[in-house]
Amino acid sequence: MKFAKRTISNSPNLPSVLRIKSFWKWFSSNADTLASLLEQDRVDELARMLGPSLKSLDQRVGWELGPGTSERCAFSISLNGALINVPIAQAIADGAPKKLKGWEISIGRPPKSWDGRFELRNELGQVVSLDAAKWSYVLDAFQDRAFFDITIIAEWPRMDALSKKQAARTAIQNVVGERRMLEKFDRIEVAENITAELTERYSAFLNLKSHLDYLAEGRTER
After folding, report:
1. I want to staple 116 with a disulfide (CB 3.0 to 4.6 A). Which of 36, 111, 133, 157 is the partner?
2. How far, in Å, CA of 150 to CA of 168, rounded?
3. Cα–Cα distance for residue pair 140/69, rounded to 1 Å
4. Which stretches of the chain score pLDDT less than 50?
5. What is the C-alpha separation between 35 and 40, in angstroms, rounded?
């Protein structure tokens, strides 16, 4: 039987209310310009415009802009891969104007509408094409499914172990979103073959989000 316990660090210091208000005043004044740059795919100009403003508010979080689901555009406050940054992102999001026309705000990079294909660089600096639609995974649950270890099984191209884990994290984030990935997954491992031990437990990778939703409802394994 496996036992595990996650320890989350103490809450971080939050940016001041004054700085948060100042950021959202700037954002509101520039919201139409940001939306226009986003829709024209002028990424470099967006980065030059938004990056310094958010960094001056708090360097521990990042950002992502994209099309919204219920609004014209979406502004995601990235956790930069650290669960401890949730209260910081929450404080910033809570300070947003109640009526920010055309924008939806989220904490952590959201799940993507995605076919599984993406590219990364390997240890040699070469661009490697990956297709997560061909991957499988196995979950090990802890603390009554409060969190999981996950093993990603794939036919990996030439990549070192660190690059494979980076690819796995990127793909998991794309499927379930950044915050849920950090909250739900402890160890992320990679493998190349489905062993006899895993044969009865593996699932298709792109089903990961629906699998987590299913388990969150308190249902037993499918």
Report:
1. 133
2. 10
3. 32
4. 1-3, 5, 7, 222
5. 9
